[in-house]
Amino acid sequence: MDTISNSQNLCNINYRILAMAPQRFGRRIAGCVTYNVYMVLMICLQLLTWGSGASALANCPGGCICNDDTLVVVCEESRLDVLPIALNPSIQRLIIRNNKIKTIDSSMQFYTELQHLDLSQNHLVSIPMKNFAYQRKLQELHLNHNKISSVTNTTFQGLNSLTVLNLKRNFLEELTNGVFSTLPRLEELNLGQNRISKIEPRSFAGLSALRILYLDDNELSSVPTTSFSLLGSLAELHVGLNAFSFLPDDAFAGLNRLAVLDLNGAGLFNISDFAFRGLPGLRSLNLFGNRLSVVPTQQLSSLTRLEELYIGQNDFIVLESHSFKGLKNLKLIDITGATQLKRIEKGAFEDNINLESIVLTNNKELSTIEDCTLLGLPKLRHVSLRDNAIKVLSESVFVGKELKQLDLTDNPIICNCKILWLQQLLNEKSNFSQVQCASPENLKDKYLKTLTAEDLECVLYDSRRQTIICIVGFACLAVVATLLLILYRYRKSMQEKLKDYKWNKGRKNLEYHKPISTEEDCIVRGIHPSQYPAPPHAPGLRPIPVTEL
User: Going by DSSP bridges, is the β-strand pair 64-67/72-75 parallel, antiparallel, or unpaired?
Assistant: First the structure.
């Protein structure tokens, strides 16, 4: 074990000498290392791997975390100025982030098993030719946040398995023909936040598998349509924060599989009618932060499969009826920060019956949303009207009971009886945002949910109840009026019928008071007629004597 330990110490010294050779003695001396010396170094590496786990960890540079079980080495803010050479040659993930490394030296050849290499946030200025020739298993290479000013078609030679290349936030100025031709399996390429102003027609040649491309925040003055036409498999394209100003017809021709197009902050003033032609599968479009004075209704109408549209921070003043005509599959629309937007007309979203979410936030001039604007949207569940200039909102703007989320915070809401419906809705929906009153003065800063109908100066507690009472009252008046009209129309015939009724009634009364005959009277009294005395002048009857007074 002492022999192995001594050998390891010797190897560590040799590794460090070799690692420092390019910096201390120049590249010429470093290049004079013979094949035999190289073999000695490789034997030393093997000796290092034969040692115990504790011995292997002893070669981990200060400030780093080395795990020989997971084969991961992490060196963040470790003040390294060269790549460590004494690491386990079997490591698969090497993360040396936020250090002071200025170049990638020959020590890379010892780590042939690498699958993930992160050298971001260092001081890299250039990458030597064929520096990654031994990293044939490498899948992800992160070189972002450095000072790399150029790359060529030999820079990435050997990286046949690479799927992700991150060169974001460097000093690249142009892309030459075939610069990425040695990366046949590359799926994601990030070139954002550079200084690229020129892209040659065949810069992306060979990237047949590329699906995600970032070119945002560069200095492009026009869309490199010819270069994009080579990317038939591209699904996401981010080209915002450039200086396009205008999109011509067929600007993205050849990108038949494109699903996401990000033009955020591209400086667009105008869009040609057929700028988006040839994008049949586009699902998400970001036009946020441009200079469009009107909604490009005609230009968008061909994107029939569009599901998400971000169009805030533009210069339009009004959303007119049918502003998004043709976008029948639209699920989300986001209009945030449109500083000049004042009014949304009825029918603005009439063609978008599949809308699920509408975001209208931080539009400082937006005060008017016309009645029924959000009606007829059966799938609408999320509405954000946060931080606008809305003072009054009618109940007929939308059917609130169908919503799952409603945000009306930071609006100058006037709390009176016209807003009673919203107060009742807030009490029914616990997941709706709180609404604070801006006026009148006695209700200022109070939460609408906590107020009563009396606080809002409502005569009736329920405006719907008032409506029902009014309807019933009108119905009663209508019935009475109808009856009066019928009486007036048939008054003569009714008078005649009334007279007949009185005459018949009088006749019956007379018949009732008619004297009952003697025979009848007897029968009633129970006396037989034979027992009743004969009439006065009847023969054989004795006259009734008259009593003398």
Answer: antiparallel
Detail the DSSP E strand segments found in 181-311: 188-190, 198-199, 212-214, 236-238, 246-247, 260-262, 270-271, 284-286, 308-310
* Cα distance between the two ends of the chain: 177
In one-letter notation, the amino acid at residue 283 is R
Identify the bridge partners of residue 247 per DSSP, sorted by sequence position: 271
Q: If residue 73 lies in a helix (H) or strand (E), which one and from where to where? A: strand 72-75
- Helix, strand, coil percentages (3-state) for the chain, rounded to 5, are 25, 15, 60
Q: Are 311 and 334 in contact (CB under 8 A)?
A: yes
pTM for the full predicted model: 0.75
Angle between helices 2-24 and 35-50 (to 10 degrees): 130
Calpha distance 415→439 (Å, rounded)? 6
* Tens-level pLDDT at each residue, the chain (549 residues): 443 344 444 444 444 444 444 443 443 334 444 334 444 454 454 444 444 443 444 489 989 999 999 999 999 999 999 999 889 999 999 999 999 999 988 889 999 999 999 999 999 998 988 899 999 999 999 999 999 999 999 999 999 999 999 999 999 999 999 999 999 999 999 999 999 999 999 999 999 999 999 999 999 999 999 999 999 999 999 999 999 999 999 999 999 999 999 999 999 999 999 999 999 999 999 999 999 999 999 999 999 999 999 999 999 999 999 999 999 999 999 999 999 999 999 999 999 999 999 999 999 999 999 999 998 999 999 999 999 999 999 888 877 778 899 999 999 999 999 999 998 888 888 778 889 999 999 999 999 989 989 988 887 545 455 556 657 776 888 888 888 887 777 766 777 776 666 656 655 554 544 444 444 443 444 444 444 444 444 444 445 454 443
Burial 251-279 (b: 16+ CB within 10 A, else e): bbebbeebbbbbbbbbbbebbbeebbbbb
Positive or negative, the CA dihedral 110, 112, 115, 117 is positive
Alpha helices in 200-295 (DSSP H): 225-228
Q: Evaluate whether 65 touches 81 at the Cβ level (below 8 Å).
A: no
Whole-angstrom CA distances from 346 to 319, 322, 378, 413 are 9, 9, 16, 21
Query: Rounded to an integer, what distance in angstroms lies between the CA atom of residue 331 and that of residue 350?
Result: 13
**DSSP state, 436?**
B
Rounded Cα–Cα distance for residues 231 and 209 (Å): 8
Cα(360)–Cα(385) distance, integer angstroms: 5
